[in-house]
Write a structure and sequence with these properties.
The chain is 73% helix and 1% strand. The longest helix has 33 residues.
Length: 748
C-alpha cells in the first residue's frame, strides 16, 4: 500500500535468490573488464610510451595501482559504516573520474615530466578508489556467491567476458592502426570510462553487504587483523598468492614492451593482448570446474608448471622469427591460461577457507599484501630493465638480454609460489598425486565428455548407456557422476552404476557408496552387483559387511559374497569360507567357496576341495564336467601352478592330445635314468586323449618321489594325488594338473 515502507531485506539470503541475482555480477565483471581493457592496461602503456615516457616511469605507473592496495586497510571503517554494497559501487564509479585527467595531456606535449605527473595523479586516484572498492567487494562476494559454485562462477565470468574482450580489442586495434597521432587514444579512453561507470552501477542489483552493527565498526574491524596474522596456513597462502601476483603484475605490463621491442605495432599488440583474457577464460572455466570437484591445490600447481615452461620459452623469441605475430598471440594466450587462471584459483581458495565472521580482515590483509608485492615488483622490474639496458648481466662470458633476466626471475619465483601452495591445508581437496591419477588411468578425455552428457537431460535408456560407458572407460573422473547415479529414479541406471563403480579405482568414496547399497534390503539384484563390485575392487575395508551375507537365505547372495571375499583376499573370513565348503546345502555356494579358498591359497581346505572334485567326476549331469574345472583351477592356485595350468589346458583344448605327452617327456628328462622316467616316456608315446589310463598310472607312480623331494609344496601335491588316485578314467585337465604339480616339486 502507498505510504508503507518496503519490507526489510532478509538477514540470510537464500541460495536461490543469490543465483537469481548473479547475472548482475556477470554484467559488472564484463563492463568493468571492458573498461579496463580500454584504459589502464595496454592502451595506457602504449600511450605513455608514445608520449616519450621511459620504462622506469611506465613501471611506476603500472605499479602504483597494486601498490596502493594498502589503502584497502584504511577503507575498513568506511565499509563498516556504510556497508560493502554502497562503498563498492560508489568507489568503482568515482575511480573513472580520475581517468578524465588523461585528456589534459595534449596541453603539455613535449614536457615528459609534466605528462608523467598528470598520469601519476590520475593513476593514484584510480588506485585509491579501486583499493576501497575491492576491499569491500571481495569479502562481500562470499555473501552473494554460493560456496558450491564459486569455481564455476569464476569460469563463467571469464567465458561471458571473452567475446566482449575480443570484440573490444579488435575495435581498439582497428581504430589505433587506422588513425595517426596521440589524439586517437582519447575516444578509446572515453568509451572505457563510460563502460566502467555502467559496470559499477550494476553492483546495486546484488544483495548483502549491509553496514556492520554499531559495536563492530571501525575499531574492532581493524583489531580483527590480528586473527589472520595468527593463522599460519593463511600466511602460507599469502606467500603463494603474493608471489604469483608479483609475477602477474610485472609481466602484464612488460610483456607488451617486450613484444613492442620485437617490432610489433601498437594496435596489433592491443588486439593480440586480448588473447590473454581468452586463455584466462578457457583456463578459468576448466579450472573452476575442476576446483569444485577436486580442490584448488592440484589445479594451481598444474598451472604453475605450465607457467614456468612459458617463461623459459619466451627468451627464444626474436624479431627475425617467421610468423612472429602468431607466436606472440600464442604467448599471450598461454600467459592468460596459466598465470591469470592460477591467480583466479588462488582467489577461490581464499573464499573457501576464510571464516565468514572475519572475512573482511582476511580478505583485506590478502588484498593489501598482494598489492604491495605487485606494486613493488612492477616498479622493480622497470628499474631492473632500465639498469640492464645500460649494463647487461654477464655470466660465464655470455651477456643476457634484459628481458631474458626478467623471465628467468619469473620462472624462479613461480617455483616459490608452487612450493608455498603445495604446503597449504585444504579440507576435502585431493592430493596432487591423486589428482593426476584421475588423468593417468583409463580414458580421461572421453570420460570428461561422458560426464557432461550424463549431467544433461537424457532418457532412461541413454542414462543407462552413459553409466555403462563411464565404467568401461575406467577413469576415476567419472566417480562422482556414477555415485550420483545410485540415486537415479531408474532401477536399471542404478544397477548399471553399481557395476560400473566396480571398474574404477578403489577410492574410499566409491567403497562407501557401494557399501551403502549392501543395505538395500529387498533389492537383491543391486546387493548382488554391489558385492561383485566390491570384490572386483578388492575392498578389504568392506569385507565384514560382505561376510554378513554368508548367513543370507538367498543362495545367490551367499555365493557372490563367498567369491567377493576371495577376491578381496579377506583371510579373516577363512573360517566362514571353510564352513561353506563343508556345510552349505547348495552346490553353487560350495563351488563359490572353492573358488574363494583357491584365491586365498588355503592349504587346509585342499582335502575338502578334492572331495568335491571327485563328487563331480562321479556325477553324470552335463554340468558336472565344467563345474569340476572350477575346483581344478582352485587347486592349481593352492599348489602354485595356476598360470601354467590355465595356459596348458587352453592349449590342450585347441589341440587335444598334445599337452599331456609333452609334459610327461619333460618330466622324464628331469628324472633321467630313474624307472619312473621310462614309464613316462612309454606312456607319452602311446598317449591318446580318449584312453589316458597308462599315462595316468605313470603319473601316479611319481608319488614316492614327490614325498621324498623336500619341496615345501610336496605335501599339497601328495594330498592331491592321494585324493584322486581312485579315479579310473581321469579327465585330461586333471592329468595336466598332477603332472604340473609333480614337475614343480621335483624340479632341482
Amino acid at each position: 500500500m502507498d505510504g508503507e515502507e518496503p519490507p526489510a531485506e532478509p538477514a540470510v539470503q537464500s541460495d536461490f535468490d543469490k543465483l537469481r541475482r548473479i547475472p548482475w555480477f556477470y554484467s559488472q565483471v564484463v563492463l568493468t573488464s571492458t573498461a579496463v581493457l580500454c584504459t589502464v592496461t595496454a592502451p595506457l602503456t602504449l600511450f605513455a610510451a608514445e608520449m616519450g615516457l621511459g620504462e622506469g616511469q611506465i613501471g611506476v605507473l603500472g605499479g602504483i595501482m597494486p601498490f596502493l592496495q594498502v589503502a584497502g586497510l584504511l577503507a575498513l571503517p568506511v565499509i563498516g559504516r556504510f556497508g560493502s554494497r554502497r562503498v563498492a559501487a560508489s568507489a568503482l564509479t568515482a575511480r573513472y573520474g580520475f581517468l578524465c585527467l588523461f585528456f589534459l595531456t595534449p596541453f603539455f606535449l613535449g614536457d615528459v615530466d609534466v605528462v608523467f605527473a598528470i598520469l601519476l595523479v590520475a593513476m593514484t586516484g584510480f588506485a585509491l578508489c579501486r583499493a576501497t572498492a575491492e576491499a569491500a567487494l571481495i569479502p562481500w562476494s562470499q555473501e552473494f556467491i554460493p560456496r558450491a559454485i564459486r569455481g564455476r562462477v569464476a569460469g563463467r565470468n571469464a567465458l561471458i567476458y571473452l567475446p566482449v574482450a575480443l570484440v573490444v580489442s579488435w575495435l581498439i586495434r582497428w581504430w589505433l592502426d587506422g588513425q595517426t597521432g596521440l589524439w586517437r587514444f582519447y575516444p578509446v579512453f572515453a568509451a572505457g570510462i563510460l563502460c566502467g561507470i555502467a559496470g559499477s552501477l550494476s553492483l546495486l542489483g546484488l544483495r548483502g553487504g549491509a553496514p556492520a552493527a554499531r559495536g563492530r565498526r571501525a575499531g574492532p574491524r581493524l583489531r580483527a587483523l590480528a586473527e589472520p596474522l595468527g593463522d599460519r596456513n593463511f600466511l602460507v597462502f599469502l606467500a603463494a598468492s603474493g608471489t604469483q601476483y608479483l609475477i602477474l603484475a610485472a609481466l602484464n605490463l612488460f610483456l607488451l614492451l617486450f613484444f613492442r621491442d620485437l617490432g610489433m605495432r601498437s594496435g596489433e599488440l592491443v588486439f593480440l593482448s586480448a588473447l590473454t583474457p581468452v586463455g584466462a577464460a578457457l583456463g578459468t572455466l576448466a579450472a573452476g570446474w575442476l576446483v569444485d570437484r577436486y580442490g584448488t591445490r592440484p589445479v594451481f600447481l598444474t598451472l604453475i608448471g605450465g607457467q614456468i615452461l612459458l617463461f623459459l620459452a619466451l627468451p627464444f623469441m626474436t624479431a627475425e622469427m617467421g610468423g612472429l605475430a602468431v607466436l606472440v598471440a600464442v604467448a599471450f594466450f598461454f600467459f592468460g591460461l596459466f598465470a591469470q587462471t592460477a591467480m583466479a584459483i588462488g582467489g577461490v581458495y581464499m573464499l573457501n577457507v576464510v571464516p565468514p565472521a572475519s572475512k573482511e580482515a582476511f580478505t583485506t590483509l590478502h588484498y593489501i599484501t598482494v598489492g604491495l608485492v605487485g606494486g613493488a615488483a612492477t616498479v622493480f622490474a622497470g628499474m631492473l630493465l632500465a639498469r640492464l639496458s645500460l649494463a647487461p648481466l654477464t655470466l660465464f662470458g655470455h651477456a643476457f638480454a634484459p628481458f631474458t633476466v626478467l623471465f628467468a626471475l619469473a620462472a624462479m619465483l613461480s617455483l616459490v609460489a608452487a612450493a608455498a601452495f603445495y604446503a597449504l591445508r585444504e579440507e576435502g581437496g585431493l592430493s596432487v598425486r591423486d589428482f593426476f591419477a584421475n588423468f593417468s588411468t583409463g580414458s580421461p578425455v572421453r570420460a570428461l565428455v561422458g560426464i557432461q552428457r550424463i549431467a544433461g537431460p537424457t532418457s532412461e535408456d541413454r542414462r543407462r548407456e552413459l553409466a555403462y560407458g563411464l565404467g568401461a572407460l575406467r577413469s576415476p573422473l567419472a566417480k562422482r557422476e556414477l555415485i550420483e547415479a545410485l540415486s537415479d529414479p531408474s532401477f536399471d541406471v542404478r544397477h548399471e552404476a553399481v557395476q560400473s563403480l566396480g571398474h574404477l579405482a578403489p577410492h574410499e568414496d566409491v567403497v562407501a557408496a557401494l557399501s551403502e547399497v549392501l543395505g538395500y534390503d529387498g533389492l537383491v539384484e543391486l546387493q548382488y552387483a554391489a558385492i561383485a563390485s566390491l570384490g572386483r575392487l578388492k575392498a578389504r575395508g568392506a569385507a565384514a559387511q560382505v561376510a554378513a551375507f554368508l548367513g543370507s537365505d538367498n543362495p545367490l547372495l551367499r555365493a557372490r559374497a563367498l567369491r567377493a571375499l576371495g577376491e578381496m583376499g579377506a583371510v579373516e573370513a577363512l573360517p566362514g569360507l571353510r564352513a561353506a565348503l563343508a556345510e552349505d546345502p547348495h552346490l553353487d555356494c560350495r563351488l563359490a567357496a572353492v573358488s574363494a579358498l583357491g584365491k586365498l591359497r588355503d592349504e587346509e581346505s585342499l582335502g575338502g576341495q578334492v572331495e568335491i572334485y571327485c563328487e563331480q567326476v562321479a556325477d553324470e549331469h552335463a554340468m558336472a564336467e565344467p563345474r569340476s574345472k572350477v575346483v581344478l583351477l582352485a587347486l592349481a592356485k593352492i599348489i602354485g601352478v595356476e598360470e601354467s595350468f590355465a595356459r596348458d589346458w587352453l592349449s590342450e583344448q585347441k589341440a587335444p592330445g598334445q599337452v599331456p605327452p609333452d609334459l610327461m617327456l619333460r618330466l622324464a628328462r628331469m628324472l633321467r635314468r630313474q624307472n619312473e622316467a621310462q614309464l613316462l616316456k612309454r606312456a607319452a608315446g602311446r598317449y591318446r586323449a580318449e584312453a589316458p589310463g597308462e599315462a595316468w598310472m605313470a603319473a601316479l607312480t611319481l608319488r614316492p618321489l614327490i614325498s621324498g623331494s623336500g619341496h615345501p609344496d610336496a605335501g599339497k601335491v601328495r594330498e592331491l594325488i592321494d585324493g584322486v588316485a581312485g579315479i579310473k578314467a581321469p579327465h585330461p585337465a586333471l592329468l595336466i594338473l598332477v603332472l604340473l604339480g609333480a614337475r614343480r616339486v621335483l624340479r632341482k
